[in-house]
Amino acid sequence: MTTYSTSAIRLPLLAFLAAVLCQSLAAIPLRVLAWDDEVAARKLSIVHAKGANPLENLHPFTRSAPINVVIGEETPPRLQALDRLDEKGVPAVTPIQVPAGMKYPLLLLLPDAKSATGIRTMVLEDDPTNFRWGTIRLINSTGKELIFKWEKKLAKLPTSWAPTEVSPGGDTRNMGIGLFLPEKPNPPLYSAVWEHREDARKLVFVVPGTDPTRGPVDFKFIIETQADAAAAAR
């Protein structure tokens, strides 16, 4: 009968447990985008399995530098408001739900008076292999279904905040775009000329207009070029 020493059993077991632990504590590069100047000015931190990262130099039109956040099954990441206390007298927190398998999450910080922190979190996949250079990703936050027209093509923008990707293709150029209601294409809610850049990707939020002179809709542009991405990685 074959016998095994205790040490011979222990070493493979420890290696197995270490592998399981590494899988359950995965570090991913998280970038953050504040919705407006008020959110960007808040004193915030991201708390995760390996510590806390203060959020500094947030901007409503630029992604933050990547933050290595460790995501563990027992300790999911959360947003901590250092400038707002909960009923226990400690900084309020809001959970951050990062879907399994997401490689390049973009954390969107939205104002929310009902949240303990005053902020609602939303996580979008920002993987450049899917959100490619030369594309436009549109998110409709108006609450009304819209149609986006670029050159001679159309794309439906749902009300669910689900991203709609537009790939004009070709070289850098100016192109005509329009936005209208499905049941009322004319007159359009908005029409203009946008620049298409093959070395940039544009995240565009369609928002309700607040200035009557600008029309019923407005836009929040988050534009990143390949040079910007290289600088952020460095």
Structural description of this entry:
The protein is mainly beta. It is built from 3 helices and 16 strands. The chain has helices at residues 6-24, 37-40, 226-233, and strands at 25-34, 44-48, 51-55, 67-72, 78-85, 91-95, 105-111, 119-125, 136-140, 146-150, 153-157, 164-166, 173-180, 190-196, 200-208, 217-225. A 4-stranded mixed β-sheet has the order 4-1-7-8. Strands 3-2-5-6 form a 4-stranded antiparallel β-sheet, with no helix packed on it. A hairpin with a 2-residue loop joins β2 and β3. The protein is globular, with a radius of gyration of 22 Å. Mean pLDDT is 89; it is low at 16-23.
Sum this structure up briefly.
This protein has 234 residues and is mostly beta strands. It has helices at 6-24, 37-40, 226-233, and strands at 25-34, 44-48, 51-55, 67-72, 78-85, 91-95, 105-111, 119-125, 136-140, 146-150, 153-157, 164-166, 173-180, 190-196, 200-208, 217-225. It has a 4-stranded mixed β-sheet. The chain has a 4-stranded antiparallel β-sheet with strand order 3-2-5-6, with no helix packed on it. The protein has a 4-stranded mixed β-sheet with strand order 12-9-15-16.
Number of strands: 16
Q: What kind of oligomer do you see?
A: single chain
Q: Give, in spatial order, the strands making up the sheet with the most strands.
A: 4-1-7-8
Report the C-alpha radius of gyration, rounded: 22 Å
Please, how many helices? 3
| pLDDT averaged over residues | 89
Helicity level: 10-25%
Distance between the termini: 59 Å
Low-confidence stretches: 16-23
In terms of structural class, how would the helical and strand content be classed? mainly beta
User: What's the helix-strand series?
Assistant: HEHEEEEEEEEEEEEEEEH
Percent in strands: 35-45%
* Biggest sheet character: 4 strands, mixed
Shape: globular
